[in-house]
Specification:
Layout: E1 4-8, H1 11-18, E2 23-28, H2 34-45, E3 49-57, E4 61-65, E5 70-74, E6 78-85
Antiparallel strand pairs: 1-2, 2-6, 3-6, 4-5
């Protein structure tokens, strides 16, 4: 079972990956722990992971009014993992494009 859903490719994290910080972000499964995330990234990208930080993002409530009624919805919760690689390691998300 793969615990990684997709990488987070934003301007801020791209700059952190290119600079000396060597940090990358991933959206992962809610039941994944740090050890499972570390092993999955090392196996998938052939890199050495130094540390993993995780956080859970709570979904927001969305409200919209229509002519007939007021509609309330909710976006889903998800988990982020920020991975720091060992020195000299990097991940290239664009090499297969």
């Amino acid at each position: 079972m793969s615990y990684l859903r997709r990488p987070i490719v934003t301007e801020k994290l791209t700059k952190a990956g290119e600079m000396k910080q060597r940090q990358y972000g991933f959206i992962v499964e809610m039941d994944a722990n740090k050890i499972q995330i570390k092993n999955e990234i090392e196996k998938t990208y052939n890199v050495k992971v130094e540390s993993v930080r995780t956080l859970i993002i709570m979904g927001k409530t969305r409200n919209r009014s229509t002519r007939s009624r007021y509609i309330t919805g909710h976006s889903s919760n998800y988990k982020k993992a920020f991975v720091t690689l060992a020195s000299g390691q990097e991940i290239d998300f664009y090499k297969n494009i």
